[in-house]
Amino acid sequence: MLAPSFGAEVHTDLWGLSPVTSMGGQKYYITFMDDHTRFTQLQILRTKDQALDAYKAFTVWASTQHGARIKHLRSGHGGEYTDAEFTKFLNEQGTEQRLTTHDMPQHNRVAESLNCCLVECVQALLHQSELPKSLWGEAIHLCIWLKNQTSTQAIGKATTPFEQLTRCKPNLAGMPEWGQRVWVHRGSESKLDVRASIAHWVGFNQDSPHAHCIYWPEKGSISVERDIKFASKQAIVYAPHFPILQADLQATATPQPPMAAPPAVVALLPNLQTLAPCTPAQSHGLQAAWISRLLTATIDSSNEDEDQVESELSDLTDLSTDGPSTPIPQNRKGKPAEVAQPTRQSTWTCKPSAHVRRLAMGEGMTDGSSQSFPGWHLNYAGHSATKSTSLIEALAGPDTGDSAFLADLNNVIVVAIKESDGDPKTLSEVQSRSNWPHWKEAMDREIKSLKVAGTWKTVPCLPRKNIVRAKWVFKLKRKANRSIDKYKVRLVARGFMQIYGMDYYDTFSLVACLSSFCVLMALAACFGWELEAFDFNSVYLNGELDENEEIYMQELPGYESLGEFVKLLLKAIYGLKQAVVKWYHVLHQTLTDLGFCVSAADLGVFYARIGENILVLVVHVDDCSMTGDSPKLIALYKHKLNDCHTLTELGPVNWLLGIKVTWDRKA
Amino acid sequence: MGYIESILARFSLTDAKVHATPMVPAVTYSKDNSLKNQVEVACMRKVPYREAIGSLIYATIAKRPDITFAISILSQFLDNLGEAHWEGVKQIFRYLAGMKDRMLTYGEERHGLLGYTNVDRASQLHHQAISGYAFLIDGGVVSWSSWKQELITLSTAEAEYIAAMHAMKECIWLRCLIGEIFPRLIDQTTLFCDNQATLQLVTDDNYHMCTKHIDICFHFIYQMVEDGSINLIYCSTDNMTANILTKALLHWKVATHVLRLGLCRASRGVLDSGTPGKPKAESDKALGSMGGHIACSTIAG
Fold this sequence. Notes:
Chain A is of the alpha+beta class.
């Protein structure tokens, strides 16, 4: 049941808080929808208390423009509609308020479903255009404009809210795509300067009828421009789902026999979408789904086939007017409006993207060789990409041979992308790879070395124990010439599953003060002592867990045995929270056994007096630098330390925590 | 490529015009420089301020005492920055571009541990004093700091007194570290201060009207001096190396103090060319006799 006249009933709702502030600093919007015409007005607000001002403006607009007074206002039970000022204003105006009961937004169905429609539309526009979310204010203005110009079920399909209100048919000819790139003319520059710069179209200016709102991505600002020209359309889309793509293409291509050449289908898309009864955002999305998702397709502007395109445009117009739903687009000047630039496009240039080119060159393949794909050769490996029969055309063809080829291609691409994407992330991923035997071997080796070190013992699973899960980390090490050096696999515990107070206490990592390094270097320089650097290998595996630290780890993924068993850890492994502090304890113990004392001033500094001589060691987790007055002793103690924990000698200090150290003996 | 070069390249300032000071002396930074309207916010949105400050802080704590003060001021505006602050950060980069070949050098000369403490009481708008200290071993700085004092002081002497107290805490730690490992190296340590009133305050324990409000904990310094382990002596403001840690200086002062801190060019002989003489400490004693000098520059992998 529609209201009998304009203004008899108005639905309103306030939406917010938006997660992103709009360009003008707004976070809310309020809508007013007339029940009779379904014409909607929208205003974006900074704060909720601006709702009353917005409503006042709406009432004044309704009375000035259409001589109507609002009789009923239907709204939610929000505070902005029920506060004293708002009620007072309604009383003064003689408007009856119809509130929903609390927690029953269903009663305000019309306004709420409008919200849903608008927000989805904005999402689609922002997503498709890849512009920043802060442009939602501009996007929603276009959405509401489109909503008023397109038909809605409530008032019948043959008319639109705009038509209901103003009694003239809306003109949607040459409707640009939101976020489309435009060239904006720059005045007041010297004759040799660039005459235009590129920006994005984000809607019509509400106040001046012939101006456009233009978004400048570099400046992050919006300006109002008159002198613009829509740039050639560039669609960059990608997704590996060929079957869907093909079905979509055929479904859309078959009912429109006049358009035998697929480029025209795409070229006319912007027009098609404005004629279609669905919201433009939906058709934007569709467009993304069914234009080739694989290629970077650039459509050159050229006027050669203008006639042909125009005839196709009229075909298309005929087609769409067959349906009862669409408003008839009217061209005021009898030819396509000047903004309808995309229709003047006819030739295609297909270029493979950088990623596809790399694949075709064989980069990232497991064997490092150049892979020849049947399809890529056809289009890309050759040099005739510009005049090639594009893949889109191949896709649109109903030939079964082509679809078989595409299915093959699909598989090849999926496998190639997987393998080239670097190191495998999960066990199931590595098992599906062609080099799985190598990985398996590396995993066996890792388990063996952990077993030799006595890292765990297998015990039956006990109830009420926190069990930490384990994970494999894979890393493919390559040599400088990209050939494979080593399959490196590390078993790590998921330390974030440990519980503080139960599984671990301290997690600090002990480092010496930078000042201590400086002091040591100053003193070494003063006495002319050697300063040697070394670091320990796989330090975290050296830490021994205490008696009272019971950490249970699940059975190793890929090596599960029958029955309920878990691993009780005896030594620290990578990923455990306390691994680093355990390492410090072990190092402390080792150094104490060797006769070192820890400095009271800095726990990262160790020193030892051996007879007349002295040795000083500064520790930064596993990076150590050692100095002393006897080079022989330094070498001896490094050897002794190496017997306890394997270390890598780095020679005289050259790099220390990212600082370069040089030693000038002549000075 | 060194660390400084790498951060200059990261922020596309490799070819920046070189500047002689890390901070313009007359400029004060405050919340008033922060953004006021949406247009300015839009302009500054893409500025990598935090990244720049973060990468400079590493340089500061690793090897560059000369930019410590500028960084400590500019890092107060991470959340509420204005264009002036970003210009300030760029100035630091410009300064570093001219100073990237400097290395912290130890062993150029022979004297034990000595320290400088200084304070700048009222140049900042918040009226809290900025205190700083630097400790040097053999002509190379090993420990330095610049920070805003936590309390508002009534006189320069009082602010200096508190700064000296903080410097002494660091001094005790350094003496502890060195003394533990090399007991024979430690005797009296010299701490330079450029305020005569503070020295008076330290050397006699008379009751003053002006100092009766100074908290008992700050008289710890008196105890340390009486004990004899630390010798607090006067040096003129021109020779006060810790000046660079408390205020923005003119370029020739920056150049002098940078050399004093041990930031020398990789090639030798810089120190000999026309730098003012160092203050002589009474307890000036050589730590050792053997030669050798280690230079560390801020170059990171």
